[in-house]
């Protein structure tokens, strides 16, 4: 009985100590205070804790539209009043880039933020190479995201023993044509046209669902392939927490650097982050497709960020095409993450895993210099057995705070072919 009373007393004491959010006061430059309050995770009446308060601050930092962002939490009995002082602005910035190798490619992007005073981010991108063209545009505002993309490819597809084929895509600048001539079994000219619309809605801070209808059409110069429409629809669920956000084009105009000082300080203790996607792709007569498609996929990532900001990353991917014609089969390159390759394996199903360690050689107010060695491997079921595709290498990159995309070089050694690829790198996942 005494134990029961003690436990009851402890529970009562904890409930008495629990604090809730009181008033949330906001001042801003362009954005309406009501809009900023809506974007802030904590609302009056919510349970207040230092951990949730920290995450709520991070969410506003990641909008990347502020030059100044100050937070104050003032206890008022069993409530905590929160005050936010924000200096927000808008930006629009063009960026052109080129990639080289055995083939060359170029592109141009136009990024904007907070143009409509809603904390939204927008982008417009176009690029091309000798293998085709691509263009996309999109907007993210609050819980909503909408994007549209179009790609048209015109390329040679080569097939080798071991169910391997060459890499393809507008920005695939590697070329296997001269390196693997003794292994070549067939070659066919291929055309692919793809138009997709993606809409996603965030249901909570960590959960987002998406739908993506696509028009896809293939044309091959040789008979025996699946010429025609491959229209499909993908439904998916995305989970993520404490994963660093990527592009911040506002930094070029001085916006979005409000958490730079915080990012340069060591963490009080290591922290973990995760991301996961599960999706289903279907197609058939009901989508206007000439072929039946049923594919299930899963992507997952786990990140351990050490006190000194170095990161250990593990990523895994799996796909199973229960029903798929040739053009919709699984590609090993889609199961790998860190390396660059000039050939891949195609088959019915597969899984891959990769690991990398991001070590910061330099961290200061100018930028971040990092070295990231990696190892990754994938197995694809083709021709009655699982076939491996693996690689190891490293990426050396430098990221200026005022230029958000890391620039560097990547070296990849293909552990099956023995091939070595060195390529220019712009951007990154983490």
Reading off the top of the CATH hierarchy, the class of the largest domain is best stated as Mainly Beta
Order of helices and strands: HEHEHEEEEEEEEEEEEHEEEEEEEEEE
State which percent range the strand residues make up: over 45%
By CATH's scheme, which homologous superfamily of the largest domain applies? membrane protein fhac: a member of the omp85/tpsb transporter family
Q: Please tell me the overall pLDDT.
A: 89
The helix content is under 10%
Spatial gap, N to C terminus? 54 Å
Number of strands: 24
Task: Examine the coordinates and then state which fold CATH places here, giving the name of the CATH topology of the largest domain.
Answer: Porin
Number of helices: 4
Shape: globular
Query: Helix/strand/pairing class, anyone?
Result: mainly beta
Gyration radius (Cα, Å) is 25 Å
Please state the second-level CATH architecture of the largest domain: Beta Barrel
Q: How many structurally independent domains?
A: 2
């Amino acid at each position: 009985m005494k134990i029961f009373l003690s436990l009851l007393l402890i529970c009562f004491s904890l409930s008495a100590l629990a604090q809730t959010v009181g008033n949330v006061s906001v001042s801003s430059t362009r954005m309406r205070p009501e809009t900023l309050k809506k974007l802030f995770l904590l609302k009056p009446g919510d349970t207040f804790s230092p951990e949730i308060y920290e995450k709520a601050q991070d969410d506003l930092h990641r909008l990347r539209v502020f030059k100044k962002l100050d937070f104050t939490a003032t206890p008022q009995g069993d409530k905590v009043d929160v005050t936010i002082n924000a200096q927000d602005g808008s930006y629009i910035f063009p960026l052109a880039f080129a990639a080289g190798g055995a083939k060359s490619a170029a592109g141009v992007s136009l990024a904007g933020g907070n143009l409509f005073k809603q904390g939204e981010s927008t982008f417009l991108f176009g690029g091309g190479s000798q293998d085709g063209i691509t263009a996309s545009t999109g907007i993210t505002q609050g819980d909503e995201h909408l994007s549209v993309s179009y790609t048209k490819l015109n390329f040679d597809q080569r097939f080798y023993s071991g169910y391997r084929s060459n890499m393809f895509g507008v920005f695939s600048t590697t070329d296997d044509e001269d390196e693997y001539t003794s292994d070549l079994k067939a070659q066919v000219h291929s055309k692919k046209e793809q138009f997709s619309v993606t809409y996603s809605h965030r249901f909570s801070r960590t959960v987002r669902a998406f739908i993506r209808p696509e028009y896809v059409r293939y044309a091959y110069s040789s008979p025996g392939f699946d010429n025609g429409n491959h229209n499909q629809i993908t439904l998916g669920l995305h989970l993520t927490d404490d994963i660093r956000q990527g592009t911040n084009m506002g930094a070029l105009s001085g916006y979005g650097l409000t958490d730079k000082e915080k990012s340069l300080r060591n963490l009080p203790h290591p922290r973990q982050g995760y991301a996961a996607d599960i999706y289903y792709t279907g197609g058939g007569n009901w989508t206007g497709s000439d072929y039946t498609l049923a594919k299930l996929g899963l992507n997952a990532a786990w990140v351990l960020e050490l006190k000194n900001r170095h990161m250990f990353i593990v990523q895994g991917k799996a796909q199973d095409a229960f029903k798929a014609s040739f053009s919709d089969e699984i590609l090993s390159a889609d199961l790998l993450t860190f390396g660059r390759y000039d050939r891949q394996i195609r088959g019915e199903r597969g899984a891959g895993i990769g690991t990398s360690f991001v070590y910061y050689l330099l961290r200061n107010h100018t930028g971040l210099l990092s070295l990231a060695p990696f190892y990754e491997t994938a197995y694809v079921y083709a021709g009655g057995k699982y076939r491996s595709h693996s690689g190891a290498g490293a990426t050396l990159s430098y990221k200026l705070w005022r230029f958000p995309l890391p620039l560097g070089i990547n070296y990849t050694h293909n552990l099956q072919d023995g091939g070595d690829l060195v390529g220019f790198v712009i951007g990154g996942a983490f």
